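Sample 1 of the test manifest.
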Amino acid sequence: MEIKQIEQQFLDYLKQQNAYEEALSLMYWDLRTKAPKKGAEQRAEVIGFLSQKMHELSTSDEMKSYIDQLKGVTDNAIIQKSVEVCEEEYEKNNKIPNDEFKAYKMLQSKAESIWEEAREQSDFSLLQPYLEKLVAYNKKFATYWGYEDHIYDALLHQYEPGVTTKTLDRVFPELRKELTALLNKIKKSTVQPDPSILQHAFNKENQQAFSLEILERMGYDFEAGRLDETVHPFAISLNPNDVRVTTRYDEDDFRMAVFGTIHEGGHALYEQNIDKKLALTPLATGTSMGIHESQSLFWENFVARNEGFWTNHFDLFKSYAPAAFQHLTLDEFYPAINEVKPSFIRIEADELTYSLHIMIRYELEKALISGEIEVKDLPRLWNDKMEEYLGIRPSSDKEGVLQDIHWSAGNFGYFPSYALGYMYAAQFHHTLKQELDVDQIIKKGDFEQIKAWLTKHIHKYGKMKKPLAILEDVTHEPLNPSYLVSYLTDKYSRIYNF
Amino acid sequence: MEIKQIEQQFLDYLKQQNAYEEALSLMYWDLRTKAPKKGAEQRAEVIGFLSQKMHELSTSDEMKSYIDQLKGVTDNAIIQKSVEVCEEEYEKNNKIPNDEFKAYKMLQSKAESIWEEAREQSDFSLLQPYLEKLVAYNKKFATYWGYEDHIYDALLHQYEPGVTTKTLDRVFPELRKELTALLNKIKKSTVQPDPSILQHAFNKENQQAFSLEILERMGYDFEAGRLDETVHPFAISLNPNDVRVTTRYDEDDFRMAVFGTIHEGGHALYEQNIDKKLALTPLATGTSMGIHESQSLFWENFVARNEGFWTNHFDLFKSYAPAAFQHLTLDEFYPAINEVKPSFIRIEADELTYSLHIMIRYELEKALISGEIEVKDLPRLWNDKMEEYLGIRPSSDKEGVLQDIHWSAGNFGYFPSYALGYMYAAQFHHTLKQELDVDQIIKKGDFEQIKAWLTKHIHKYGKMKKPLAILEDVTHEPLNPSYLVSYLTDKYSRIYNF
């Protein structure tokens, strides 16, 4: 058969995968936003069936034959890269025996619901037996998949290909040292922001209107997306022209919705601005969890927690805010939204302490997978590390080891992406500053320039480039945590006057 | 293999069909309610692929083998009936050659979008060539499927199995004679309702709140459904515990949303109250278009346009209505919502003239399929019949032949269901009146009794019984249009005082 014919068949095959993916994404979106609760049970069966179909397509003999026929042969770069991505997926999935894959999927979904109950009751012992099985499976899978230095690398690879424990063990200690030093300076400062000035009733409709206006200004395309309300905010791409965002409204704290929407908007801008030539291939999505997070954090923190952003948008904010906010000055407001304070819950952490939360999780999960520690010791070890890194000790499992869903979903190796995202974002930000007067641009609200730069250097590539290739192509150096440190030092030395 | 094993395999196979159906239903619902418009193009591809999968499952050799192994053999009534439904579908789909099926699907989707344009421009000639092809395909399909008396019966069978042209040619002329006589009396009456008293601004939020309250009182289960806004209202079952309703708000005419919601709520109650034992089989849906319409019309007209309904709910209505409605008396309001007046648009027609609109469509499509008339003559023939049946002549294609989407969607044989639904509803209503004091129950707002009766006699069966079997089992006689006539006579003689 002609190579062009095989290419066409391969592309048609990818379209099938894509169809299942879009159906599944819509089902997840619907379950989290709109679906009536009684329908969820049957919906779970439907999701199970369609996921199975997806899995079959990615591990089929037909897929294998496309890989064998096209790999290194096609001169079409998109097809070549698609073949590589499919081959990785094929190898990864085919290395796990079918019965283990099914049992693992069932365990995952069971463990997730047990986690909800355990968290509710703040009782780790409920989850422990499930977590033990999940860890055992992940060790097994890591062995199937293989690794060079450390067993945990095989898991890390799923979320951040190219990054290894070696990288993390180089950057995290350095970052921790600097963050701790900064944190000490902040603690000792006589200048302390007062975040209580932000905690006034602010009705949902107005928070929504303000959030929508900011999303619009960021360049989010509402003809290719929409904003809805959920308990846990997320962004999801159904297809390149349908990328949806959700947020959560807390009428006593507008920060939840406003910064949450901007964060998810950053994820969405990434997905909306991938080159449309990649549509209907596995390349039409963000290249990794870490690069994705770098985009959401870039908008949430480097843009929307920047002083210039509020110089520009403070009047707009006040036009939606209730009376209690009208007397506030920018000099009170800006420090208040940037308060640094060690806290128990990761997703509520400030820009500085956030990465410390991640390091705790990284160290614990690495030790779990390598067998140095046991699941039953997690609550104690978690609390010990919190005390060591952040100087506070959780008084319950709920505000400690049970706060995140990741482990009960079997996602070991995922957490480092969050801290990598911070470091990537800072490194991108540093490069962007060399090229453009970012602070001035943010102050002017000319986000089109920022969006264009991110699209040109990051978004458009989708999965055409691996995460570290993007980082190095844009910034001309390997991962370097010092940019995050200098960004935070610069920012907080002004706010806390040290 | 043991029969029980085959049965289990068959049930698993049905679950697969069900999964595709739920995914497709969610996609349709989403496209009509929430989906960003730019995403629709790729969504159409996904829908095409999943529909193709559905079609493959219903026409596969595997399906044929289940039918052959189980038909008449199984002693499980649900499986037996499921086999029968699958066999009908298998025969129907396999009689159409694959290439014709695909070409027809493409023509359908093209014609639907041309129809929108043609209607916009009020120009039938744009649609004519597509309609000619659609008619030709439908004639061909009818020949493939076969019929006893009249070629149109093969098409009618898709929507209302058991009902034939012979039945319709018996009941429609009789019904038309009586409706026309009634209409003449109404026209001559010196008493005329004044619907202008209803046309005051009524904000959407309050219309919605009132509609939600009525849906709740009807017994619609909001934990297994939800109400959204669309241009064209509909009810859709994603699964037996997820049956959604949509409505449309006209701020200058509350009747659109209120009666529209109740109508769709009637459809939804049917789907929500099918016996859960039928879930995940093809029996877990309404048995026919006509029986479905009988349920929506029952609630919309026989309940919600009943005088007692408003005796009970007028205060509630006023609590949501703006000032302009507060001085209205029930004696003004009740006749106004029941005005009879020939009008051009079917979906805006009153209870009396509605069936006349259907007869016009029935006669035209029957003649098209049998070859007695040609597509090009439709606009003229339509207008002639409007003049003959309703005494008014459309001045444009838009308010004439182009108003409905059905023909451009290839749905020939569908229209009679609407008038059948009216007659079924009236016949059910008559039976119910023998057993219970319906007017008193409506006046008391005790809808639970009505819902329970409809569930017991109609809803719970899903597709376990054919439409005419349901009608005869409940009312102990064949289709009889006189019940609709006497219901309308009774109602309008009071309102119009004749």
